[in-house]
Design a protein that fits this description.
Cytochrome p450; 11 strands; 524 residues; alpha+beta; binds (3alpha,8alpha,22R)-cholest-5-ene-3,20,22-triol; 20 helices; four-stranded mixed sheet; single chain
């Protein structure tokens, strides 16, 4: 356990090297636990700053905490355990579960301090089983798992193709088509029901919508998942992503290498899931690669249609094929459960408030009308709809926490936090804290439109250069989906079942969400 911290420290610039720090507060200090050299480099810190070793929380015995964690069914309850810990220990606590030693924070102001101390190569918690799979199969890491200069150089190239604001215009026509197909499919289902409505647990449908969307943006081609007969391969791919997430959780706490040597079930299932994901992605990538070479040979010149992210990256020729494949695979695997779950939560919340639904519908209709067929323009005129997605991610974030290793000494809640510490912002806990969000239990998108401070409060996609690379794809895809749904259907709830979150690496609904969709106009 001591080794863990030592090796962390060696990965981040030492305090002395990182002396040029642009901080907003006086943060440096020394305690008796730090090397003596620091005393001569940094001014004395106010004596009121409390030392690291005085942090509250269960950090003295990692195994005992792990045991308690198990007893509280922590594997499914991580989010609630964090909420309880903040209630018991206050806005900052230290915790050691197994070999993870971290400081946990909940306040936006502390989040700001944390992200200012993330350094040039921000590092989040490494998801070890994902790394282990790639090492075992000798596959390249994508940007999600890369670190240091390798991460930065790849990320810079990918940013331009995937997240820069100007690429949204390329994605819109592709995603617009997928949205229209989804709506057509729902109309068909309603018609077939003979009841002028469709009552269903939409999660499979949304998984297909999400995969179809991310696929069309990455490859510039359609999979055809919204047709009546879906390819069993696609179903296997979708199921594998869910299995991959589920089997990750136990391996966060038990080293995957150990589980591998023990020949455990969870390791084998995890490997198999990744194998299916990678093989499927490889097939898509090969396909595009071959097409591209063929069209080059024949000099079938000017493409006027946007060819997709993958083809763009291949033509750009700035990253190795292996690097491209690794990050494209991550985007494809990361783009299914995440957006579909967020959309399902949004529909759930809308089904609970018909008034809000009407308000959003009015905004959408007027934006549609005033933008005269220019969908990219239309997306600039739906602030409440965008706020609704933020609001969903506040109450139902995909990630339970955001983490960074600090690269300099900082002070949070008047405690000294040494450089190289793993600090986690409890995103789920923050979203439901009444000091951060008044009446947190209310689903109220308009809270994001008012002049209230939003300072470090909207963090559903993370922050800064290490934020979610798929963000722009996800946002566009979700906005268009909601626009189409609001334009066509009324979303109702056939029962009053209260749905909570459960942790399966990402946070997902703990039970099926059943909704009723009714056409808005009788004529359709
Ligand atoms: C899980 O304690 C809980 O976006 C851990 O699309 C800390 C932790 C670390 C990294 C987080 C993970 C949590 C949740 C899932 C995240 C992941 C980083 C990226 C990943 C948030 C909070 C996700 C879902 C990506 C997944 C892409 C992958 C399939 C290639």
């Amino acid at each position: 356990m001591a080794r863990w911290r030592v090796c962390l420290r060696s990965q981040v610039p030492s305090l002395v090297e990182g002396a040029t720090v642009k901080g907003t507060r006086a943060r440096r200090c020394h305690t008796d636990s730090l090397p003596a050299i620091r005393e001569s480099v940094y001014p004395q810190f106010p004596s009121s700053v409390r030392p690291f070793k005085e942090l509250p929380g269960p950090w003295k015995n990692g195994l005992a905490t792990l045991y308690n964690f198990w007893k509280q069914d922590g594997m499914k309850n991580l989010h609630n355990i964090m909420v309880n810990n903040f209630n018991n220990f206050g806005p900052i606590y230290r915790e050691k579960i197994g070999y993870y030693d971290s400081v946990n924070i909940i306040n936006p102001e502390d989040a700001a301090i944390l992200f200012k101390a993330e350094g040039h190569y921000p590092q989040r918690l490494r998801v070890e089983p994902w790394v282990a799979y790639r090492d075992y199969r000798h596959r390249e890491y994508g940007v999600l798992l890369k670190e240091g200069e390798d991460w930065r150089s790849n990320r810079v190239v990918l940013n331009k193709e995937v997240i820069a604001p100007k690429v949204q215009g390329n994605f819109v026509p592709l995603l617009e088509e997928v949205g229209q197909d989804f709506v057509a499919r729902v109309h068909k289902k309603i018609e077939r029901s003979g009841q002028n409505k469709w009552t269903i647990d939409l999660h499979q449908e949304l998984f297909k919508y999400a995969l179809e969307s991310v696929g069309s943006v990455l490859y510039g081609e359609r999979f055809g998942l919204l047709q009546d007969h879906i390819d069993p391969e696609a179903k296997r791919f979708i199921d594998s992503i869910t299995t991959m997430f589920q089997t990750t959780t136990p391996m966060l706490y038990i080293p995957p290498g150990l589980l591998r040597r023990l020949g455990s079930r969870v390791w084998r299932d995890h490997m198999e899931a990744w194998d299916i994901i990678f093989n499927q992605a490889d097939r898509c990538i090969q396909n595009i690669y071959r097409q591209l070479r063929r069209s080059r040979k024949e000099e079938a010149g000017e493409q006027d249609k946007y060819p997709g992210v993958l083809a763009q990256l291949l033509m750009l020729d700035k990253l190795s094929i292996e690097d491209i494949k690794a990050s494209i695979t991550e985007l494809m695997a990361g783009g299914v459960d995440t957006t579909s779950t967020t959309l399902l939560w949004t529909l759930y919340e809308l089904s609970r408030s018909p008034d809000l639904q009407e308000e959003l519908r009015a905004e959408v209709l007027s934006a549609r009308h005033s933008s005269e067929g220019d969908t990219t323009l239309m997306l600039k005129r739906v602030p409440l709809l965008k706020a609704a997605i933020k609001e969903t991610l506040r109450l139902h974030p995909v990630a339970v926490s955001l983490q960074r290793y600090t690269t300099e000494d900082i002070v949070m809640q008047n405690y000294h936090i040494p450089a190289g510490t793993l600090v986690q912002l409890g995103l789920y806990a923050m979203g439901r804290n009444h000091r951060v969000f008044p009446h947190p239990e209310m689903y109220k998108p308009s809270r994001w439109l008012r002049s209230e401070t939003h300072y470090f409060r909207s963090l559903g996609f993370g922050f800064g250069p290490r934020q979610c690379l798929g963000r722009r794809i996800a946002e566009t895809e979700m906005q268009l989906f909601l626009i189409h749904m609001l334009e066509n259907f009324r979303i109702e709830r056939p029962n009053k079942v209260k749905v909570k979150s459960t942790f399966e690496l990402i946070l997902v609904p703990d039970k099926p969400i059943v909704l009723t969709l009714r056409p808005l106009s009788g004529s359709q």
